[in-house]
């Protein structure tokens, strides 16, 4: 490796260094982003596919980087998680979503649930329950309007602890949803005792609908099981009308995806909400 001009190793380590440098820089930038108002939330409608009403909104975090512009949450959330920033960011997200629920309520929005993604580090943080309580008290949000989304793999990672915390959160009046369902190898025997309100079928299974036999089997099994257990069921990543028709026929409660709408700024969300109400 002395004469390394042409060696793959040198090339590899240059690339790796560049990668690492970029990552460290982004983590530095994330630290500043919170204080500098570079984060905001957008809201994706969740639509009752039969009644054509907006019943829910998933809050999704957006970061406008001063030089790079849009950075995907799929990139920066794991970085924030790794650098210990996600708990603080997550609390801000929850606070913002709670404030938004109060604003929309005052603007005449009825029976809407805002779903907030909760990361692993956040959910397992020292006093998550206490944080949620104080955010609710501070914002005066109606707990019944807020739903917490945790991923299936997080839910299954420490079942006893999870069940206890979810029960405490639901006792506050909040709802709980299991995100990315079907990807996390749940033991179905656990699922029946989970204190939850909703399951979200992962986009991975929605993509193959309505034609792929395997995805048909999985989607219909999830919907049937969710119904029997008394959980609401949401399909995510729905892009085409035939998917909507198929999921409606299965009895899926809510449809989320580009077919109805991309994530929207709060004002545009409000417009969309009343547009569907008036039809
Ligand atoms: P997720 O929770 O599974 O969110 C759904 C993602 O699918 C969102 O991507 C959404 O914009 C996208 N999506 C919705 N409908 C469609 C569709 O019809 N087609 C396609 N191709 N995509 C669709 P987004 O906003 O880029 O977020 C990516 C992930 O980042 C989220 O996946 C979630 O895991 C994470 N994330 C976003 N915001 C937050 C947050 O505030 N806190 C935490 N902890 N995670 C977040
Ligand atoms: Ca989610
Ligand atoms: Ca999801
Ligand atoms: Ca997903």
Notes on the structure:
The protein is α/β, with parallel strands linked by helices and 279 residues long. It has helices spanning 8-35, 73-82, 86-106, 120-123, 128-139, 152-155, 159-171, 188-191, 203-206, 213-229, 241-250, 266-277; strands at 39-48, 53-65, 69-71, 113-117, 146-151, 175-181, 198-201, 232-235, 254-256. The chain has an 8-stranded mixed β-barrel, surrounded by 5 helices. β2 and β3 (69-71) form a beta hairpin. The protein is globular and about 55 Å long. Residues 58, 117, 149, 179 line the site of one calcium ion.
Present as ligands are: ligand C2E, calcium ion
Q: Termini separation (Å)?
A: 70 Å
How many helices? The count is: 12
Radius of gyration: 20 Å
Low-confidence stretches: none
The coarse silhouette is: globular
Q: What topology, given as strand order, has the largest sheet?
A: 1-2-4-5-6-7-8-9
Question: What is the gist of this entry?
Answer:
The chain is built from 12 helices and 9 strands.
SSE layout and pairing:
Layout: H1 8-35, E1 39-48, E2 53-65, E3 69-71, H2 73-82, H3 86-106, E4 113-117, H4 120-123, H5 128-139, E5 146-151, H6 152-155, H7 159-171, E6 175-181, H8 188-191, E7 198-201, H9 203-206, H10 213-229, E8 232-235, H11 241-250, E9 254-256, H12 266-277
Parallel strand pairs: 2-4, 4-5, 5-6, 6-7, 7-8, 8-9
Antiparallel strand pairs: 1-2, 1-9, 2-3
Helix pairs in contact: 3-5
Protein name: cyclic-guanylate-specific phosphodiesterase
Domain EAL: 23-277
